[in-house]
Amino acid sequence: MSGWLLILFLLLLGGLISTLGDLLGSKIGKARFSILKLRPKKTAVIITILTGSFISASSLSLMILVNRQLRVGLFRLGDLQKRLKESREVLIPLKQEREKLETKIIDKEKELLKLERNLIALRSGKFVIRSGQSLFISEINSSAENNVRSQIEKIIIDANRSTEKVVNPNRKDIKNLLLLRKNHIDEIQKIIAKGGSWVINIKSVRNVLSGENFVYAFPEITENKIIVKKGEVITKISFDQNEIRKKGFGDKISLLLSSSLAEVKRRGSLANEIKLRSDSVNDVRDFLNKNDQTSFELEAVSLRNSKTAQPIIVELNIYYLNT
Known about the structure:
By secondary structure, the protein is an alpha+beta fold. It folds into 3 domains: 3-75, no CATH class; 128-224; 227-320. It is built from 9 helices and 12 strands. It has helices at residues 3-30, 40-66, 68-75, 77-124, 148-167, 182-193, 241-247, 249-267, 280-290, and strands spanning 127-129, 134-142, 178-179, 196-204, 208-209, 215-223, 226-228, 233-240, 274-276, 295-302, 306-307, 312-320. It has a 4-stranded mixed sheet. A 4-stranded mixed sheet has the order 8-10-12-9. It has a two-stranded antiparallel ribbon with strand order 1-5. The protein is rod-shaped, with a radius of gyration of 48 Å. The N and C termini lie far apart (118 Å). The mean pLDDT is 78.
């Protein structure tokens, strides 16, 4: 039954029952009828009260009979409220978990967008600094006269200035571009304070685009030791005239220098290339032109003592092999 029909029916029922009750009360009053030895007037009042109660009871019964929501509300309200409360308590952690998941999704979307931008930048060659690239290399010594912390701070300032020139070459004012974790700095300070000579190599944590405001970096510390000595043969290769005619003399030089670089890096050098004495190649080529031997040996010989952070400079020596 619709709400409006129910209200109309209740009004009609209430009016009918109240009219009947009023008529009944009047007749009982005129008949001077008595209940429980009460005076007729009080008996009429009681009849009127009972009639009103009957109107309320019948109206309520009718509403309960035809309206399911009212039945549920009257007889199961407490149970429903309890279940609603329990449901809300269950929903609270679920809501919190949903908020966490939404936050993670947003973060992942941002990270994905950043990766896409970096991929585009990588393909277009817009990175000015690569992940793991050395930003600044400096030697540092521990002694009673020098404060280790102040030396480290100076290295960081110099590294920041050097990085700023790469990332923001047109910026006039130098800002704090380089970001290093304090615990990393404390760790290398403890190592250096024990004594000895060391090399600090500050590297970039990630790829960096031109114009970025921050560069995240971490410091690596390596013992500053002699990697190669003056006159030491770093690597050598053997070949014959047939190989030279097939692959060319330049290929042999490149192979020798690549092998030398791999060897010094294995020893702990931070050099990224092997520097070759300028006239050394011409000397070797002249030697090959003047000798008709079939087998030769080519050596890369260090021209000086070179430590961990110092460049490696070599010259080429060539000898013919006795067959």
